[in-house]
Design goal:
- The complex is a heterodimer.
- Chain A is about 35% helix and about 20% strand.
- Chain A is α/β, with parallel strands linked by helices.
- In chain A, a hairpin with a 3-residue loop joins strand 11 and strand 12.
- In chain A, helix 5 packs across helix 6 and helix 8 packs parallel to helix 9.
- The termini of chain A are far apart.
- The N terminus of chain A is likely disordered.
- Helix content of chain B is about 35%, strand content about 20%.
- In chain B, a hairpin with a 5-residue loop joins strand 1 and strand 2.
- In chain B, helix 6 crosses helix 7 and helix 8 packs parallel to helix 9.
- The chains are: A alpha/beta, B alpha/beta.
- Chains A and B meet through helix 8, helix 9, helix 10, helix 11 and helix 12 of A and helix 9, helix 10, helix 11 and helix 12 of B.
Chain lengths: ~350, ~375
């Protein structure tokens, strides 16, 4: 019933080193009136327990869609997964039945969404929504679930948790709502958390509080974390490794220190040059020319070629593969050597 | 052109001594000139009422509670702060879109909070605004030409009827859009292009001051840089003064000559960009700066982080004395009793240091949290 033979080709001498989650050649497309929008075109990444992978990209790069595919919450149709494997602890989740996936979702893999206000139900108390995790998944009674909810709220440092457990989402501030989302994701002590822009809607001082809390809890439970974001600053603060996405592909993937010191893809390089820095006053900002492509009409060859300062004829015809750069990184650029070398 | 680019140069030279020197020269240069906009003790309280038949006021949201600053010609003043600190209300007050509860806004010596009718209309021509969200601030049923040309309906003296189309095409060209797009609708453009349309509309009446309320926060990183560069280019070209309101401290540093930090309706600290970012003296500014993630993984080990506890208090019921004291690690009994005024702290008054700028704290102390040096 399960697809165990997939593990065999993973070079894993000792079992704990096998990745917690591995995504292989994932494709996601949406059928729309304007044609087929290819949101994700062959994405590969893996996360180990206790590791933080940042998936970085602009709007429309496919970073959220690939995460939703992992979570199994894509609306199908209009979405379709024509190809790919999502291996969680060695088993391909795409081949599982709906019932099996439900058991993993929430219990093993949990998700934190960007907008806490619209992700929480406004007509149910926070304590009820937190307790729901225990009632549904563990069959606890209402009273026990409520006690657990208070415990969770304490965990994420909501002051006076006992008194506030009956409050409704609108009675909390933005930062506290996001903590409640984190609490809900943590409820069943999952092994993997997917956080989709968890702090984008928050102020910087609150963002720092929330990211701190998330990192601390991750260490405590030794969870894998996939952090989806567009903020290069947040990534530098928390990630172990980065996958940069552009037009549904990973264009560069590397350990966090390498990518900031020496980007190996012109897109990453452009992004890093185009953000103003807090600690230095620059002159004119470097701007990547043009706009991200329309996903129904992705340019031929390398999708970045119309905006790339280094583009040559080969970039317009051949899709670059993810070339290995050193041991632990890869760059999907025909001219990665030149990009690194400059 | 040289006027506005001069104050930006000192930051580029990172060495210590020259910064002090040039910053001072720039400050002296600014002091020479008459400010184009003077804001004095600006107050805006939104009443909270109770009762349906007989309404009575039970309190007020003190959105802006005594804010003062100057804006000089060709200068960019950045205003930063968390949501709810009153920065957007300041923008609306400067535009006279809200009636101030108290205080004055002098535009070239004339108090615009007291103006109405024709006199206000004349002043408004010179103060224009660029809004945050390019998706909702453009009417989806109007063509780009109509949107950019609409200010001319209100101020026909700027462009006579026959000239308007030509003028709109020029404006499109200035902001880097193809003039042939004049008959298109907003939905046919991307976010960055829409923000350019918003900027073209702001430029239409040749204003002297443009108030930008979070102009790039809705845009993708790679497009933000394009819009920021455009705004800097336009400033040099038309000698514009910007009030640049944003929550992204890195962008504010990049574009601003001077920066004001707001907290709960009050100005906590104000100074040149180097003074605020490299020599902050107010604890709130220090906490705010230390919380900004820096895109450099090497920095995460040695950077000191000040994590504030709790949330911003309600502006309807702000703390007594210093408003920041409930989250401040330096707070003492004095902070609850006595409100610190925005002034140069006495301990720095006699010293020649970049820490000598206005800061509203009893215990102002210099601290480099960004690690710029």
């Amino acid at each position: 019933m399960t697809v165990i033979d997939d593990i065999s080709d993973v070079p894993a001498p000792d079992a704990p080193l096998a990745p917690l989650l591995e995504v292989r050649d994932l494709h996601v497309e949406f059928h729309t009136r304007d044609g087929v929008a290819k949101a994700v075109n062959g994405v590969n990444y893996s996360v180990n327990a206790g590791e933080t992978l940042a998936v970085l990209g602009e709007s429309g790069s496919g970073k959220s869609v690939s995460a939703q595919a992992v979570m199994g919450i894509l609306d199908m149709p209009p979405a379709r997964i024509p190809k790919g494997e999502i291996l969680f602890q060695g088993r391909d989740m795409l081949k599982m039945s709906g019932e099996e996936r439900r058991k993993i979702r929430g219990r093993k893999i949990a998700m934190i969404f960007q907008d806490a206000l619209s992700s929480l139900n406004p007509v149910l108390s926070v304590g009820y929504q937190l307790g729901e995790m225990y009632r549904v998944h563990q069959g606890l009674s209402r009273k026990d679930a409520k006690a657990k909810a208070i415990e969770l709220m304490d965990r994420v440092r909501i002051p006076a948790a006992k008194e506030r457990v009956g409050d409704y989402p609108h009675q909390f501030s933005g930062g506290m709502r996001q903590r409640i989302m984190i609490a809900m994701a943590l409820a069943l002590e999952p092994e993997l958390i997917i956080a989709d822009e968890p702090t984008t809607a928050l102020d910087v001082t609150v963002q720092a509080q929330v990211m701190d809390l998330l990192a601390e809890l991750q260490r405590e439970y030794n969870m894998g974390l996939i952090l989806i974001t567009h903020d290069l600053g947040v990534v530098a603060d928390v990630a172990d490794k980065i996958a940069v996405m552009y037009a549904g592909r990973i264009v560069e993937d590397a350990p966090v220190h390498d990518i900031y010191a020496k980007p190996a893809h012109p897109y990453t390089k452009g992004l890093l040059q185009s953000i103003p820095r807090l600690d230095q006053k620059g002159q004119e900002l470097y701007a990547i020319k043009g706009l991200p492509p329309n996903l129904t009409r992705i340019p031929s060859g390398c999708a970045f070629n119309p905006r790339c300062p280094m583009a040559q004829d080969v970039c317009r015809t051949d899709v670059p593969a993810l070339h290995p750069v050193g041991t632990a990184r890869g760059s999907a650029c025909h001219f990665w050597k030149e990009t690194l070398g400059e | 052109m040289s006027e506005s680019s001069l104050p930006k140069d000192p930051g580029a030279a990172a060495a210590d001594a020259p910064v002090v020197e040039v910053a001072e020269a720039a400050a002296a240069k600014l002091a020479d000139r008459e400010p184009i906009l003077q804001v004095r003790n600006l107050v805006k309280h939104f009443p909270l009422t109770q009762g349906i038949v007989v309404k009575r006021q039970i309190g007020a949201v003190k959105a802006v509670d005594g804010v003062s600053f100057d804006l000089h010609a060709g200068e960019t003043l950045g205003i930063v702060g968390e949501s709810g600190c009153g920065k957007s209300t300041v923008a609306k007050l400067l535009m006279s879109l809200e009636q101030a509860t108290a205080g004055e806004v002098f535009y070239k010596g004339q108090d615009i909070t007291k103006l109405s009718g024709r006199a206000l209309k004349a002043v408004r021509r010179n103060i224009q605004m660029v809004f945050q969200d390019p998706y909702t601030s453009l009417n989806p049923r109007m063509t780009v030409g109509d949107i950019i040309g609409e200010p001319f309906d209100i101020h026909p003296e700027v462009a006579p009827k026959g000239d308007r189309r030509k003028r709109v095409e020029e404006l499109l060209d200035v902001v880097g859009l193809n003039p042939e797009y004049i008959n298109r609708y907003p939905h046919q453009f991307s976010g960055g292009q829409r923000q350019r349309i918003g900027i073209a509309r702001g430029l239409a009446l040749n204003p002297e001051i443009i108030i930008c309320d979070e102009p790039v926060s809705a845009l993708d990183v790679s497009v933000q840089a394009q819009v920021i560069n455009l705004m800097e280019k336009l400033q040099d070209e038309f000698n514009l003064s910007y009030i640049f309101i944003a929550h992204d401290l890195s962008i504010v540093r990049h574009i601003s000559d001077r920066v004001g930090v707001m907290y709960l309706g009050k100005m906590a600290e104000i100074g040149t960009d180097a003074e605020i970012y490299e020599h902050p003296t107010h604890p709130y500014t220090q906490a705010l700066l230390s919380a900004v993630p820096v895109p450099d993984p090497e920095a995460r080990e040695h950077r000191e982080r000040i994590i504030l506890s709790g949330d911003v208090p309600s502006p309807a019921n702000p703390p007594s004395g210093c408003r920041f004291r409930t989250r401040c690690w330096k707070a003492e009994a004095r902070c609850a009793e006595e409100e610190p005024l925005l002034a140069i702290p006495t301990r720095f008054a006699e010293v020649d240091t970049p820490a000598r700028h206005e800061s509203a704290c009893h215990f102002a102390e210099e601290k480099d949290v960004v690690g710029a040096a």
